[in-house]
Write a structure and sequence with these properties.
Length: about 210
């Protein structure tokens, strides 16, 4: 089972993922992508997450090589939680000081390939950052674009996608029910390749 869990900050994503994993198995591995890097507030968040998890759960730190961590950690009858995609993506964009599109593309493809072949259950947590005002900063805009593209690719691969808000989880994709329609691939501008069905109607030509 593959599940993508999205929501805003403090929406209940991690608690939901932890509950889902515990319901499925006692064998759980937690892949953490955060770096404290001298940030006291981030260090507190990391410590709070660790304290909340059961003592027998394994923790693997993977701020960079998420694909490798998945391949090493996943096993039949085991649940693996990735917390979170957002920080992993931020780490990729900030690596070596300047964003490297080729490196990010390679890492993303490695992650998608690993997700398709690893055994066991995988629960992926990500912050949905694209619901607000478009940032003025170029790097922030790139981050929003890359996060949106990554979430779309992962959602297409996952059996389930869950949206969390105010501690409430809402299933928005479930392959155990009617198969979800997958949107056509998008280009980097956010436009899709799907033809507008209204385009050929009389009077529909854009001015």
């Amino acid at each position: 089972m593959r599940e993508l869990i999205l929501g805003g900050v403090r929406s209940g994503k991690s608690r939901y993922a932890e509950r889902r994993a515990a319901e499925r198995t006692d064998d759980v591995t937690y892949i953490a992508t955060a770096r404290a890097d001298g940030d006291p507030e981030m260090a507190e968040r990391i410590a709070a997450h660790r304290a909340r998890r059961p003592a027998h759960w394994r923790t693997v730190e993977a701020p960079d090589d998420l694909a490798g961590a998945l391949e090493a950690s996943c096993a039949p009858q085991r649940a693996v939680i990735v917390d979170c995609l957002t920080l992993w993506l931020s780490n990729q964009l900030s690596a070596a000081g300047e964003p490297d599109p080729d490196r990010l593309r390679r890492q993303r493809q490695r992650l998608l390939a690993a997700l398709e072949r690893v055994p066991g259950d995988v629960l992926l947590i990500g912050n949905e950052t694209g619901l607000g005002v478009m940032p003025l900063n170029a790097l922030a805009r790139q981050f929003c674009d890359e996060a949106g593209a990554l979430h779309q690719e992962l959602a297409a691969l996952c059996d389930e996608v869950t949206w969390t808000i105010a501690g409430i989880a809402q299933k928005i994709k479930n392959n155990n029910k009617e198969r979800d329609r997958v949107l056509p691939p998008s280009d980097r501008s956010g436009e899709t390749s799907e033809r507008n069905p209204l385009a050929d109607r009389p009077g529909s030509q854009q001015q």
